[in-house]
Structures are given as structure tokens and as C-alpha cells.
Amino acid sequence: MIVLALLEARPRHGYELARLIESQSENRVQFHVASLYPMLYRLERKRLVEGRWVEKAGERRRRFYRLTPAGRRALAAQRGAWREFVNALDALTGFSHA
Amino acid sequence: MPDWQRYVRDRLPPLRIGPERENEIVAELALQLEQAFSDAIAAGASQAEAALRAEAQFQDWNALAGEIESVERHTSPPPRGLPRNAVEGCLQDLGYAVRLLRRSPAASALAVATLAAGLGGSAAIFAIADAVALRGLPYADSKRLMAVETHKSRQPELEAWTSMPDLLDLRRRTGAFSLIAGVSPVWNLVMTGRGDAERLECLYVSAEFFPMLGVRAALGRTFLSSEDGEKPSAVVVLSDAFWRRRFGGARDVVGRAATLDGGVYTIVGVLPAGFRYVGEPLAGTAGEIDAWLPLSANQLRDSARSLRFLKAIGRLKPGVSVEQGRADVRRIGTALSAEYPEACRGYAYDAQPLAAVSAGRVRTAMMMLLGAVGFVMVMACANVANLLLTRLSARRRELSVRAALGASRFRLARQLLAEGFVMAAAAAVFSSFAAIGLLRWLMSIAPPSLVKPGEVAVGGRTLLFAAVAALACAFVAGMPPAWRAARSDLETGLRESGRSLAPGRHRLRSALVVLQIALALALTTGAGLLIHSFRRVLDVDPGFDARNLLTISTQLPMSARTPPERTAVWRRLREALSRAPGVRAVAAVSRLPLLGKNLSSWLYVEGRPMPAAEPGFDVEYRVATAEYFATMGIPLRRGRRFDEHDDANPGAVLLVNESAARTFWPGQDPVGRRVKLGAPSANSPWITVVGVVGDIHHAGLETEMRPEIYRPYAVNPLSAPILVIRTSGDAAALMPMLAATVRSTAAGMPAYNIFQMEELLARSMAQRRFLMLLLTGFAAAALLLAGVGIYGTVSQSVALRTREIGVRMALGAEPAAALRLVFESGFRLIGIGLGLGWVAVAALTRLVRSLLFEVRPLDAAALAGAAVVLACFALAACYFPARRATRIDPIAALREDG
Predict the structure, then answer these.
(1) N or C end of chain B: smaller count of CB under 10 Å?
(2) Which residues numbered 19-38 in A keep a CB inside 8 Å of some CB on B?
(3) Secondary structure, 3-state, B776-831
């Protein structure tokens, strides 16, 4: 879900994704770059993301990943489920957003 | 800077995937290392430090390779992502539907069985309806065939007959018809000279008759126009069945002679086996025509215009419409009425399609049955749709995930439709067995007057009907869930627990149940009306006592020509039969009740003004021996019966029935009054009414009584008397012996149409009984389906409200409260369903009015009765879920959803 969320705004390449995950979670999420690529390949196989080699002027050729429509829907669904889960946890533990 | 590509290549074990993809992956991983290295340098790290930092990102190369390989080799694209083409997608959907159905075999089997029963029943009924009423007549270009009719303008419901001069004039003057043929009523001729004398059912037809129908002789030929001219021609064409029975199917039969009623006829042809005239099977006896003769050979060929005894059938010229044909006949009729006012007074000329005449009331009955079976099918579909909807709610998560993975709403709807389709296809396979079995059973109980056993089979048209019906079922059953799936907010499905049910879906299910209740009410009411009608018919007093009464038709030998000779034969016959053991009384009559034959006459009543536009009062005419009334058990109301004294002057007396007494002498005693037969101006003698006898139902139990007159046997000794014999015990056991007695009275005397009168009565009700049985069967099926539907929906709502009921009970509610909760939801459905059902009944029963007897279409008892039966059934269907609701354990219920 995290990867999908990061790709929501715009296409990114693998290194950028790895950096963002590390920085945005302020290193609180245990993350291995070694697991990022297999995950990207799995999402690609499931047609939730699409990888494409892009060559920009003055830069190296990179593989950019972007969200497919199916990926966008899956993200929405997962967000919903997550929200539910969090709500349920809140209810169980006695905390509330209200 | 290190060569990161080489670095990755050296460490990453070979991947068992395509080399191109491997290169891509290697390049991407190398980029990751390169970027990390560059960033470290930029952050001020040394070359060695930066290289170490970069290398630290991937440590276990074996694990990485294994993971990548597993993803690349085993992660398949989403199952229903984007199929290459629609056919492949549909096939996928079908395969998936089959797997799903197999996952819950019991529910699937129930649904398929329901549909199969509905489809099988429909196909069987369609096969009968098609043969009886839908399929065109089995003649060439049969849509152009018209029945040309001369009706009594006052009583258009009476059978229409045309006279010989009218037929000739119609033929001469028509502009719309290419051919007009005449057909006589069924004529009984006795064949002698080949073993036992046999009475044949014959028709006299014009030479145009067979060519007009497009029928060719299977052997020899039909009639030549020269054989249907001025002079009678002694030629005969045999039916296939008669040829096989009496001539052993000998191919050299053409040219042989046959002795009919003492005359020698030459056999010129044999008709094809499949040929059947629209009048067959014959009313009353369900017999078939044995032999066909040219109209010129009929003794009435030179009769007057007032003697109407023919059926006229015409073929429209190409390009002429039915309406133009009718206008043509009416035009000629108007001209004839002006030219022959005396003979044509009281008659109207018209034409209608032959198919409509032959199907008649049976068509209405068949259409009603088809409609009923259609209702049952819609109900079966509604049940299956309900089942799919229930399953849909259980699969909501699955569908949501699939929607999330990229399946469009259309795809999901198509998937659900595919499930309906698979069920319908399975049902279609089973239904063909059901249809064949049901049809076999229906044919074994169907009255032969309605349909001949050999005529109905599951043929191409029936299969086509079944296929179309199955397809329609697939759509009707698959559409509601598909519609629901396409409309609903599937993403919320991910959040819902699998069991829960959105209120909207419940509304759809409720709507289906309401529909079922409404349809079931319509069917139950229809069945109720028919049952009611049937009971009314059973209650009809036929006017005679049918118990221990039997009848034998015979024909006096040709040697007995004069009235005294015939009277002598009759006396011999009476004595021989009276002496037979077990016989209490013997009599003879010209027309027997319920045999479907009539003869009418004009009556002039002394002192009573003539009806306008008609030459006299129309009455039924019968000749009867003195013993007839006592033997039949027909009561004498006034005066006396015939007796031996009347033989001296038989022409001077007659009896009338009660209807005639009421019609012609209202409030007066008819005994002693005088009448004339035929036109008032005729020089015919006055005849005195000597008695009034009870009414009997001659034309059928459901027809109104008509005024009748009886004349003594001696006034017109019958050449073909119908004997009625009252026995002291079981009449059936005596039949063979009595028939043999008749045959031995004189050489060449046949005995046929040997029936118990009770059998004749039962046969006259057979069509109605058949119709009632079928509709009752459909109504029972409808009740069952509605019950299943209500049960399913109420059960579901109980399951949904388990928590609510649990909470209420935890708060101290009595089980009765839970019961009320469930019954309330049931009552609401039943109430709405009954309301809609009544509206449907009000709209539909008008269509079946002609099938009812002495029962109004909106008969209160039938309406209320059907509603009560349905409500009881529905409440029983609510009972089980309700009982389950009262046993809900509050703790368990709360835990379940908590």
C-alpha cells in the first residue's frame, strides 16, 4: 500500500521510492531495499503499476513506475480497509478520533 | 566509480527467466547501487566508504534472486484483468461460473432443478399447444384457407352450415377466392360384402377439396372434377388407417369395388397417412373418417337452398387479404338474401380463417396454459435470481477485490450473468428429460378429443422454444444480481463483513418475492376458478339418469326401405334385446345427447306472432320411440308420453321439452296447443302437443337448454336408430352380448358407438377436467415456488437481524417479540404481493372468461380462497425462520458480530 500511495502523485523510479520510504517514515518503518524491487515486480505483474524506461536529457536512463487505473482502485480499496482496521483498533483500545 | 552492472552480475545467481528481462533487472539493481554510491560521495564519504554503503543495500543475493524469480515466474496477472478478446473472456466467465456452482452443490442443484422443472413443464405444454393451436393447419399455404359460413343471425354461436345452391352461387360469384369446396357432415355408410358389416364414417367432398388443401393421394388419385358434376359418381377414396385395417394395406386396392349402403363404389385412391381433416377427431366419438366420396354422390346434392348441411372452405386468391375475402362473402350474401328472401331470411354470410375455426375454444385454453406455465417459469427464475443474490452477498468481498484489481462493472455483471447462463444451460439439459416424461404422462391423460397421441412429440419447434426459454431464464435469473453488482458501491464491500447485506439488495430480493406472490395468486385464483367451474359442471343435471344405461348405434339393412319394413325390423330388434338377461328397457332415438350432433327445424306456433326476420321459431328436432323417455329417465312434466295408439296417426302428436313450453307458452299449459313444422304458410298439418318432458342437455353439459320437440318413431322410422338400453346391473358387462344381438337381428346390421352413458358424460367433461388438472398442477408448483422464495428471503432477514434480535432479547424481550418481528416482515411481503396479485387477477381473468362455467371471473370465493391458501403457505414459510429467531442466544448473537 505504501508503494502505491507513493506512486499516486506521480511516477517515480526505484531509488526515489526507497529514499522516500526511508525519509517519510523517519526511519520508523523497518525497510530493506532488497525487498523493494521484488515488490515492485509483483505489483507490475499484477498490473497495479507499470514500469517504463525513461531517458531524460542529461540524466541516466531510469525505470519509472506509475500507477495503473487498477492500481488506483486497489489503493482506494486498501486505504478503506486500513481505515476500517484502524477504527476497529481504536474502538478496541478505547481511543477515538472524535 | 565501480562498474555496478558487473558487480550485480557477479553476485546475482542466474535467474531462470527470459534473458531480456534479466538484463533489465540487473540494470535496475545496478542503478540503485550507483545512485546510492553517488549520493554517499556527494554527502562527503570517501570512495571506499561510499562503495561499502552502496553494497550494504543488497546483502543476501541468493535470497534476492529467489524472491525475484518467484515473483517473475509465479505471480500470474490478475485472473480477470484484460482478456485478449470477448470470447475468451466469456469462456473464462463460464468456466469460473461452473467452478462456483460446484462449490455449493446443494443450492446449485436446487436452483437447477427448479429451473429444469419450469423449463420442462413449459416445453411439454408448448409441444401440446403447438400441435393443437399454434402450428398452422397441416395443409399447403394454410393461411389462405377460409371457412365460408352461413350463420343464423340471431344465434351466431350455433354451428354454421351452408346449402348446396348457396355453395354453387358463392363459387360462381366470388372474386376473392380461387376455389370453394363443400364438405358434408359425417355420413355413416355401412360396408358389406367383406366379412362383418361395418359402419364407416364418411365425408362427401367437392372435387376441389383435396387440391385446395394441397393433398395428393398416396395411392391412386383423388376425385376428378368430372366425378363431381351433375351425375353421381360411384367412386371412393380411403383413409390410410382404414385401408390398412380392412384391406391389409394391399397396394392393388385401387380399382377394386366396395359395397357401401348396398351401392357398388370403385376405390380410386388412398390418402397419405398423415392427412387429417380439421373436423377430426370427430366430436363425441373421437373417431376418424374412413372413406371420402364425391359430393355428387350425396343424396342431398339437389336439395333446396333452405337445407343447410354443408361446410364451405375457400382458398383466397394470391394477394387477397382475409378482410377482402370476408367482404366478398358478405357482398354475395347480401345479394343472395335479396334474391332469395324466403330461404335466406334469418341468415348472415361471413368467412373467417379456417385455423381460427378449427382451434376455437381450445386455442384460448392452450393460450391460458402457456401463460400459466410462463408464470411458473418466471417464478422459477425469480427463485434462482434470489439464490444468486444471496450468494452475491456472500461473495461481496471477492467481487470488491476483483473490482479493485481492475475488473470493470460490466465484467462483473457479465460474470454474474454467466452464472445464470450456466444454470439455465444445465437446467435445459435436464428439462429435456423432464419434458419428454411429462409429455408422455400428459398424453396418457389428455382427452383424445383435444389431441391425438401420435400428433404431439418433442420436435424442432419445441426444442427451439426450450432453447429460447432457457436463454430468457438465464437473463431473467442473472439480471437482478448482475444489475445489483454493476450498480453497487463495491469498494464498500471490502469493508463489510461477508455476511452482511445492504438494505438495497434486500429490497431487490423482497421485490422478487412480492412478484412471486403476485404470480402465485394469479395462478391459484385461475385454478380456483376452473375448479369451481368444474364443480358447477359436475352439479349440472344432464336431465337423464346415466347409471346402468348404455347406447348402441346401428343402421337398418338396405332391404328395409319403407316405413312399415323399418318398423318391423325395429320391433324384432326391440324384442330380441328385451329378452336378453339383465335388460330392463329398450328404446330408440334419432339423436343421442352429448354425441355432438343436432338437427333443427322451424316451428310455427298457433296464435303466436312469428319472430321478425326469421321464417319460424328455431327448435331442436328429434324422433323417439314411446319407451325412450322412461328408459332414459327423462321425467314427464305434463300430459302424456307417446303410446301405441299414436302409431295409428303418428303425424298428429308431438312432445315438447320444458324450455319449449316456457318459450312458446309462457305461464300456460302447452298440452292441447297446436303447431306446424316448417313455414307457416305450408300446407303441413297441425300437430297437437300431448305432453311436456324434462329438459336434457343435448349439446353438452355447459350449453344452454334449447327448445326441443319430439315426434313419434312411426312418423319417421329411423334408418339409423340409436338404441338406449337400461340394464339392471353393470351395463359394461352386457355390452358385447347386446352388440352381438343387434348384429344378429338382420344380415348386414352393424353395431357401433357402443358406450355406457356415464362414459359419454365423463368424456364430455374430459377437456375441462384436463385443463383443470393442469392448471391446478401449475398453481401447486407456484405455491411451492412462492413458499421457497418467502422462506429464503425471511430466513435471510432473520440471519441479518440476528444481532438486533439478540440485543432485544438480552434487554429482556420475550421470544414472542422476536416472532412478531419476523412475521411482520413476512406479512409485509405477503400483503404487497397479494395486493399486486389481485390487480393482476383483475386484468387477467377477463381473458379466461370463455373457459369459465357459471362462475364470474372475479368470483369472490375463488379470489378469497386463493389468497387464504397462499397466505397460509406463506405463513408456514415464515414459521421456520421465525422459530429460529426465537432460539437465538443473545450472547452468541452479540459475539458473532462484535
Answers:
(1) C
(2) 33-35, 37-38
(3) HHHHHHHHHHHHHHHHHHHHHHHHHCHHHHHHHHHCCCCHHHHHHHHHHHHHHHHH
Residues of B in contact with A79 (CB under 8 A): none
Q: How far apart are CA B614 and CA B345, in angstroms?
A: 5
Q: Which is nearest to B344 in space by CA: B304, B311, B314?
A: B304
B498 at the A interface (CB within 8 A)? no
Q: Does residue B403 sit in the same domain as residue B444?
A: yes
Q: Which three cell numbers stand for residue B746?
A: 338382420
List pLDDT tens digits, range B378-399: 888 888 888 777 777 767 767 7
DSSP letter assigned to residue B134:
I
- Residue B164 near residue B303, CB atoms below 8 Å: yes
How much is the average pLDDT of A60-88? 85
Q: How many domains does chain A have?
A: 1
Q: Which of B316, B345, B360 is the last residue of a domain?
A: B360
The whole-number average pLDDT for the span B274-280 is: 74
Looking at the fold, whether B782 and B692 belong to one and the same domain comes out as no
* Structure confidence by residue, pLDDT tens digits, B627-656: 999 999 999 999 998 887 777 777 789 999
Give the mean pLDDT of B223-244: 89
What count of other Cβ atoms lies within 10 Å of the Cβ of residue B583?
Answer: 20
| Count, residues in chain A | 98
ipTM: 0.89
Q: Which domain holds residue A49?
A: 2-93
* Whether residue B161 sits in one domain with residue B301: yes
Range of the domain at B288: 142-360
* 3-class DSSP state of A42: helix
Question: b vs e for B856-894, b when ≥16 Cβ sit within 10 Å of the residue's Cβ?
Answer: ebebeebbebbbebbbebbbebbbebbebbbebebeebe
Find the CATH number of the domain harbouring A36.
1.10.10.10
- Asked whether residue B694 falls in the same domain as residue B777, the answer is no
Cβ contact, residue pair A46, B71, below 8 Å:
no
Q: Is B94 exposed, middle or buried (0-12, 13-18, 19+ CB in 10 A)?
A: middle
In a domain, A8, yes or no: yes
Closest alpha carbon to B348 in B326, B330, B360: B330
Count structural domains, chain B.
5
Hey, what's the cell of B194? Answer: 367383406
Could you give the CA distance from residue B160 to residue B310 in angstroms, rounded to a whole number? 9
What would the grid cell of residue B533 be? 367451474
B81 domain-assigned? no
The reply to whether B107 falls in a domain is: yes
User: Are A72 and A62 within 8 A, CB to CB?
Assistant: no
How many whole angstroms separate alpha carbon B276 and alpha carbon B288? 8
Q: For residue B175, what is the DSSP state?
A: S
Average pLDDT taken over every residue of chain B: 82
Three cell numbers, residue B652 = 298428429
Q: How many helices (H) and strands (E) does chain A have?
A: 4, 3
Contacts of A78 in chain B (CB under 8 A): 404
- Closest among B702, B701, B697, B677 to B687, alpha carbons compared: B677
Q: B532-569 pLDDT, tens per residue?
A: 888 888 888 888 898 899 998 888 877 777 888 888 88
Q: B77, A81: Cβ pair inside 8 Å?
A: no
Q: In terms of Cα–Cα distance, which of A32, A15, A89, A52 is closest to B40?
A: A15
- What is the rounded CA–CA span in Å between residue B634 and residue B546? 11
Residue A98 lies in a domain: no
- Whether A11 has its CB under 8 Å from any CB of chain B: the answer is no
Q: Does B454 touch chain A (CB under 8 A)?
A: no
Cα–Cα distance for residue pair B723/B280, rounded to 1 Å: 24
Which of A22-26, B135-139, B160-164, B816-820 tops mean pLDDT? Answer: B160-164
